[in-house]
């Protein structure tokens, strides 16, 4: 496996603080600038030919061209390969999960011993594998930039995740995984 190259266009980089935009305006911008890329990534995982291929791409955080997804390109290759081995050996357990939360918990338990893999890696890997096995998040998981975005709106202090009803009205029009991405993209502007 070649070294992980940074994502083609960096998509979740902090944006410089500027003029404060309304939540509605930020959501509209998110929909036009980012949703297609998010949907494309999820479709990539939904259409992998086997669980082994889905695991390889999810664990190594790479797309079809060998580029790393932007959240993971700094993770050491050894950690990603160790994750791939762990997840491959546990592949039968993924389909036994009845919910995304169960899958997320399983991956968190399996991957917690691997140095260098944090909560963002676990969430993104669970989202990608969940997409393959047909499990979508029911909650907005709070980690890294997502936690910062939620806090900027006064949400989620001390919590591992938010439910849809916890969110301001305009955000309820997005799916919970879209809200997770929105918080990441717009944390500096919230």
Query: Termini distance?
Result: 39 Å
Q: How many domain regions?
A: 2
Helix content: 40-55%
* Helix and strand sequence: HHHHHHHEHEH
Strand content: under 5%
Strand order of the largest sheet: 1-2
Structural class: mainly alpha
Biggest sheet overview: 2 strands, antiparallel
The total strand number stands at 2
Radius of gyration: 16 Å
In terms of per-residue confidence, which ranges show pLDDT below 50 for 5 or more consecutive residues?
none
So how many helices? 9
Mean pLDDT: 91
Report the principal-axis shape. Answer: globular
Q: Would you kindly provide a brief summary of this structure?
A:
This protein is an all-alpha fold and 190 residues long. 51% of the residues lie in helices and 2% in strands.
